[in-house]
Amino acid sequence: MTDPTAAPTMPAPGTTDGADEQAKSERVASLWSDARRDLVRNPIFLISAVIILGLIVLSVAPQLFTERSPYEKGFCQLSNSMEPPKSGHPFGYDVQGCDVYTRTIYGARNSVIVGILTSAMTSMVGGVLGLIAGLRGGWVDTVLSRITEIFFAIPLMLGGLLFLSMFDTGNVYTVALILMVLGWPSVFRIMRGAVLSNKHNDYVIAARALGAGTWRIATRHVLPNAIAPVIVLSTINLGIYISAEAALSYLGIGVQSPNISWGLMIADAQSRFLNHPHMLLYPSLFLSVTVLAFIMLGDAVRDALDPKLR
Amino acid sequence: MTLIDKAADLPAPRSEPDSGPLLEVRDLHVEFRTNEGVAKAVNGVSYSVSAGETLAVLGESGSGKSVTAQTIMGILDIPPGKITKGEILYRGQDLLKMSSEQRRKIRGRKIAMIFQDALSALNPVFSVGYQLGEMYRKHQGASRKEAKARAIELMDRVRIPAAKQRVGDYPHQFSGGMRQRIMIAMAMALEPDLIIADEPTTALDVTVQAQVMELLAELQREYNMGLILITHDMGVVADVSDKIAVMYAGRIVETAPVHELYRRPAHPYTKGLLNSIPRLDQKGQELYVIKGLPPTLTNIPPGCAFQPRCPMAQDVCRTDIPPLYEVKDADDRAMPGRGSACHFWKETLDG
Amino acid sequence: MAELDKPGGGPNDQPADAVPETPSLTKVEQVDAATDESAIAVIDRPAERGEPILQVRNLVKHFPLTQGIVFKRQVGAVRAVDGVSFDLHQGETLGIVGESGCGKSTVAKLLMKLEEPTSGEIFYKGEDIARLSGRALKAVRRNIQMVFQDPYTSLNPRMTVGDIIGEPFEIHPEVAPKGDRRRKVQEFLETVGLNPEHINRYPHQFSGGQRQRIGIARGLALNPEIIICDEPVSALDVSIQAQVINLMEKLQDEFTLSYLFIAHDLSVVRHISDRIGVMYLGRMAEIGTDRQIYDHPTHPYTQALLSAVPVPDPDVREDRERIILTGDVPSPANPPSGCRFRTRCFKAQDKCAEEEPLLAVPAVFSGSDSPANHESACHFAEEKSVLAG
Lengths: 310, 351, 389
Prior knowledge:
The complex is a heterotrimer. Chain A has helices spanning 12-25, 31-41, 43-60, 100-136, 138-152, 156-164, 172-199, 202-210, 214-250, 262-270, 277-305. Chain A is mainly α. Chain B is of the alpha/beta class. Helix content of chain B is 34%, strand content 23%. In chain B, helix 5 crosses helix 6 (144-157). Chain C folds into two domains: 2-66 and 75-273, P-loop containing nucleotide triphosphate hydrolases (Rossmann fold, 3-Layer(aba) Sandwich), CATH 3.40.50; 296-389, no CATH class. Chain C is 29% helix and 20% strand. In chain C, helix 1 (36-44) runs parallel beside helix 3 (134-143). The chains are: A mainly alpha, B alpha/beta, C alpha/beta. Chains in contact: A-B, A-C, B-C. Chains B and C meet through helix 8, helix 9, helix 10, helix 11 and helix 12 of B and helix 6, helix 7, helix 8, helix 10 and helix 11 of C. Chain B: Its main location: membrane. Chain B: It comes from Streptomyces coryli.
């Protein structure tokens, strides 16, 4: 070209300068910070977060909310059996004459422990196995996937009944363990799928071309990009595990007395519901609100993290 | 913004819509509401196309060329999209003021669209013949048998070999070039007046690209259709179009008949684009480069949107948005169909 | 050319010619390294300009087609690459063009050892890297790097730019001492025309062209001798393409790089390449210097390919002849007998179906001064000018 303005221009300084000005006005954004921003704006998240925060405080420090402990001597007075709510005892008394309010407060701890513990364990087991199956492929994947399918075929409640009947004592830890055994396949599936869709990405190939080993590829490239759906699932599952624990306890094979569980309290109260509704009402209310809060949280997290909705 | 068609076409009297342009877009504005703010995707686009004419809309990603097309077709997602201003006249009638029922009658029957990605535009669970025949069943009440016969006929017309045997095949059983032919057949089914082709050959190989473009041009001649070709490929544009509208940051920066544009561009952006294509006589030299990056649509620079990257920018460019000036030759005679949205179009043209 | 099937087996048959116009595909400078140590020594020695740094001989990659879920049995093979040979010289750019499915990207993956070849050899400085593993392979990786097509998927979205460009140093810690890495990363950012202060940003904060610069910086980090570029600009806008091509040319001079430049855009390939190979359905159809291929193509496929390229000049298109091929590229799982191009060729005769043309200088041109004197795999090779202007 004869045009003097058409002389080759090296892009180096100009390019970056232009981009600089643009970038300054731009906020720093990544999936996580975008998600965070979406979450804080989402009223569903805010409501559920407040409830869950309250629950956590309840379970860590129940003594803040009640001066008495359900485990202390003389807590239950049979003379108070099934007394309706009155001043100082807002939820009334149960069949044994124990204070329903105090027991409900202390019951939160077990629910929260089962939920968080199970969710954490399923994420670990299912996540790690899913990562291995997805990355390794071949026969490892085939074997693990078939095992997953077998576990998938076991209904949660039936499996829970079966496995828990093998234990003499039911406490939160045995319940969490059994729920984990039955629950990891869902995480496995999600993780394996996410890994499979990620491992053929160009940046993984680029890392291989640089000579990166399997460990580096798994931890630096595949996992960070595959973890989001697992987090979503685990959050939603939290609520489901809490309700599963309550159900198992209700059936008498989960958490057992003298441990406190909302499911147990509901079981004790159900036959007397017509005459003494307060015994059933409060633990059920707490259970429902808790499960709902975790499921709402999961929903909000999914909306914020799911790339398909972005 | 001035109408580009002041120069391009003689505006047709409203009473005789058939003699005027087939489709006329006037001062169209489209916005998107995003987390980052309002993205101004289309900012006052005007163009027109007549029967038998090919208008190429040339632009890079984010120039608003596809959004304009989607708005014409009425397939823009609203929200987040929002048409804030403008008219789209089809034979003199404003599409934007029509009821959705009326628009649906025009869409497909009168104005059809061809997409870049034929695989995702075709339904994978129905056979190709069924999807082609559906057009006749739905719009013309044809029987099943009749529809199938017409589908085979259509596939023959877009030169799909062994159409009779392949009419029951599913989209994934066809190659990319063949799928694009099926897309064209589908668009052609109801013999529309106007076809909008959005990057129809971008996903195809060059040898197949040539086949598909030739088919499209041939069908256009045969049916005297208007064609709006949306592309970023300067080569494809030079091959098939009659007139060109170059878009940048949601605006039309230059319009010209195809030969004129390549010979003497009147906008620095067009000129830069043409110069940055590797040429035979420049082997071994550095390529000409338009420095910098296209603007983000949420933050379009004041004045001329191209000004931060323009080698000719002056103070006036930073303050005043240039209208689409009529481009005149050295003797001050208007050059038909030419316009440039540059304060210094004259200098660019002569330089 | 029966020798083509058996590349020079003995070590150091002959020294390399000084930049031959068409590489002789029979001569291979081969070193037989007994140990990893000696292989690494060979691999890490500096190459001289003009020396063939990479020699590919009869490279074959077949992907098996299987049926069944648990017990898989092979029912066929996709012959993605089916006997490809070429040389790449130090400091030169070899362009590889061809349509999708011709196997050009598979060649890139084979050279990067991302796929194992079914057969054939890849000699890097005379060492067959197709057989290497472990430390010697790692040494090869330092010297052969890659730039990817899609700048949106080739950068890990969860890593900062600093981590992305610094990762090569973490994998090959001997290249840069730990304390030095950040500074080196910033240097590379500057080299590719990005602001060194952006080291802590994430890829999505950059535009497509800037991301491709980041990808190039990552490819440069280990100071390689060869960079394999798989469609490095085809995902970019026209005005950005030119910026990246200029950058790549600048870097080639600065670091004496050899490029294997794979692309489907013929004008870009011509601009950047010294020599060009045209691939069709897993085979090399024609190879020669840019002038030989573009101005004096002798293979009908090359001629059709060139004539199909839309020329960004409406005046030229009107008076040039266009060869419009019929049909699509056949499936590489079931390629035609004889010459693979014969099903779409305008010159095909019975001979083409029976006898496979080998890549060699056609008899009619051999010995002549004409630029048509270059290797072309066609029984009926003849010159035909298709690019006007």
